[in-house]
Amino acid sequence: IETKLSDGTNFIIYSIQMAGTFAAGVFVILSGVRLILGEIIPAFKGISEKLVPNSKPALDCPIVFPYAPNAVLVGFFSSFVGGIVS
């Protein structure tokens, strides 16, 4: 199995590479969410002031990603385990 999955790479090196890939992916997701929130909330606020005065912009769950990065990891692992079980 080790040869098929890691293409003959040492399991320690392969584990470090995969951990780095996963960490980079989570970082990209968190950075992207932070960037989009920084851009979209002011746009919603400008539109809402013209169309619906005194309204508040609201977004779904990705808004908490920058404030609770551990929740993102817990959610990922829970989703992964749930997918395997089902």
Low-confidence stretches: none
Please state the overall shape, judged from the principal axes of the Cα atoms.
Answer: elongated
Q: Please state roughly what percent of the residues sit in beta strands, choosing from under 5%, 5-15%, 15-25%, 25-35%, 35-45% or over 45%.
A: under 5%
Mind summarizing the main beta sheet?
none
Q: What is the count of helical runs?
A: 3
Q: Kindly report how far apart the N and C termini lie.
A: 24 Å
Number of structurally distinct domains: 1
Taking all Cα atoms into account, the compactness measure Rg is 19 Å
Mean pLDDT: 82
What is the SS-derived class? mainly alpha
Q: What is the number of E strands?
A: 0
Order of helices and strands: HHH
GO biological process, one term: phosphoenolpyruvate-dependent sugar phosphotransferase system
GO cellular component, one term: plasma membrane
Main location: membrane
Organism: Alkalihalophilus pseudofirmus (Bacillus pseudofirmus)
Report on the architecture of this protein.
This protein is an all-alpha fold. It has one domain. The chain has helices at residues 2-6, 11-51, 69-85. The model has no long low-confidence stretch (mean pLDDT 82). This is Ascorbate-specific PTS system EIIC component. It is a multi-pass membrane protein. Keywords: Cell membrane, Membrane, Phosphotransferase system, Sugar transport, Transmembrane, Transmembrane helix, Transport. It is found in: Cell membrane.
Descriptive tags:
86 residues; 0% strand; 73% helix; 3 helices; elongated; mainly alpha; single chain
